[in-house]
Amino acid sequence: MRENLAKTLALFNKKDKKKLFIILLLMIGAALFETIGVGLMLPFVGIITNPEIVETQPIIRWIYETAGFTSHEQFVIAAVGALLTVFVIKNVYLLSFFYVQFRILLNQQVKLSSQLLKTYLRKPYTFHLQRNSSDLLRNVTAEVPKVFQGMILAVFQLLTEVLVIICIVTLLMFTAPTATMTAAGILGGSIGIFFLIFKKKISNLGTEQQRVTGTMIKWINQSLGASKDVKVSGRENFFIQAFQYYSQIKANNGRYMKMLDSAPRLFIETILVFTILITMLVIMNQGADTSELITIMALFAMAAFRLMPSITRVMALLTQIRYNKPALDIVYHDYLMENEVDTEQLKQTDLPRRFKYSIDAVNVSYYYPKQSEAALKNISLSIPIGSATAFIGESGSGKSTLMDTLLGLLNPSEGKIKADGKDILAMKQSWQRNIGYIPQFIFLSDDTILRNVAFGIHEADIDEKSVWRALEQAQLKSFVESLPDGIYTQIGERGARLSGGQRQRIGIARALYHDPQILFMDEATSALDSRTEKEIMNSINQLKGDKTIIIIAHRLSTIERCDKVYEMTNGVLHETAILDKTTG
């Protein structure tokens, strides 16, 4: 429990912890109001059932005389009005308390979800190579809400109910101590036995649901992400069956949890009826007269009426907290990774700088995590600014790894990548702001041409002149001008309303939008037909001189106008002039 508390508090900064303290204070007030509501029932029932109470109870007599009542009926009517007023005030306070509690915690949930996403986006590229995006998606969208609504909010609700129970039991102890201790012993022992039986099963269900949810998201992503392949190959049933399999596991676990959620109410209801009957016997054995017995039993009945939902909620909340503990563990672990983000890089300026001389790899080697063999082996080369350089080689030869180090996505295990003699890692943000990157598969959002070219920029901040310049450089301007809505044309999910060549040109325009000095092409035309590839490469080659172009390619037609061609073989770099055959 202490470990869970420490993990929970770690998710809040100093300012937000003060807000938690406010919730605690309001929670104590809520418990006191609940106790007052129950406690007032004892004198209220006494006033109705025993008119002589005015004479025997000093406080009631003082109220009667001070208020100037002249009859018992007047006093009863006033007592009813006072009780109703107290309950109205109590419930208004509780409603306000719930509002403040939900607002503080759900705002913190939004804050933590955003913080977790920011942490993931700022992690090194190697982190994303090792983690499944479905798990990251699950953590941001599902696990964080579980932590706040299934754990933190549940803990506050649990504390509120426990305080209410303690206050009401304390009140009952003053009225009938023996009967109260008997009832508390029966109820407490029953609840303890219940959780001893089920606590391990609940924890296992929470861990299993976390795993199954991530797997379901993965199957959805795979089936919808490759919808064309799935339909053409007739593999719909394969993905449907895989999803249904894990969905059924989740449903089975959910059914079991719903049963565990419902069981406490039925369990407590049975135990509580038994406890009330035992309590009556204990009180009767103590020789209470009929009037006193009615008053005490009315108090116990009112207490039971209020305690039963509290005890039921306590058991349900304990189940919920244990069930959602795996979510706290994973969110806590990944939230702490914020401390591992490259803070030096975040302090760097994000303004692009212009380079005049060359980009150099100096004795660069790279080992992927947990790999003993180097993916790059002591590579040295120099790329003059304004030139066009190509890398060819078989799949797995190290071409993409070398490009990733040049992009600043992978930090060399040995050696350095330099621009104009300065290590790019010392100026990573300004280096990457001066890069345009065109991958083999362009990610296009279901949005307009404008927002796909100026990707990741608020529409109010988009420079339309730069968009049109980039479209012209990508030789897509005339096509866009022919569209009824121009740059505001919706292109559909993944650019479904565009041809393959048009999608690739959108990717080129995106890379050119911020007018980078260096352009990287990672097999950017390998999926296109020869004619479309030639047209796109003509567009790219027109930028040569003004921009430094670095290409990874398989087809020699892609690199025929490059100044230098390097061949990669098992992580080793060779300069070559062989342009009479394809590379696979």
Write the layout of secondary structure elements.
Elements: H1 2-10, H2 14-39, H3 41-49, H4 53-56, H5 58-67, H6 72-122, H7 125-130, H8 133-175, H9 177-225, H10 227-233, H11 236-285, H12 290-336, H13 343-347, E1 358-366, E2 376-384, E3 388-393, H14 399-407, E4 414-419, E5 422-423, H15 428-432, E6 435-438, H16 449-453, H17 464-473, H18 477-482, H19 500-512, E7 518-522, H20 530-541, E8 548-552, E9 564-569, E10 572-576
Parallel strand pairs: 3-8, 3-9, 6-7, 7-8
Antiparallel strand pairs: 1-2, 1-4, 4-5, 9-10
Domain ABC transporter: 359-584
Membrane topology: Multi-pass membrane protein
Protein name: ABC transporter ATP-binding protein
Structural features:
single chain; 584 residues; alpha/beta; ABC transporter transmembrane region fold; 2 domains; disordered C terminus
Summarize the structure.
With 584 residues, the protein is an alpha/beta fold.
Tell me what the structure shows:
It contains 20 helices and 10 strands. It is an alpha/beta fold and 584 residues long. The chain has 2 domains: 2-341, ABC transporter type 1, transmembrane domain (ABC transporter transmembrane region fold), CATH 1.20.1560.10; 358-576, 3-Layer(aba) Sandwich (Rossmann fold). The strands form 2 sheets. It has a 6-stranded mixed β-sheet with strand order 6-7-8-3-9-10. It has a 4-stranded antiparallel β-sheet with strand order 2-1-4-5, with helices on one face. Helix 11 (236-285) packs antiparallel against helix 12.
What is the CATH architecture assignment of the largest domain?
Answer: Up-down Bundle
Mean pLDDT: 80
What is the chain-wise order of helices and strands? HHHHHHHHHHHHHEEEHEEHEHHHHEHEEE
Number of helices: 20
Low-confidence stretches: 580-584
Please indicate the count of domains.
2
In total, the number of strands is: 10
Question: How would you write the strand order of the largest sheet?
Answer: 6-7-8-3-9-10
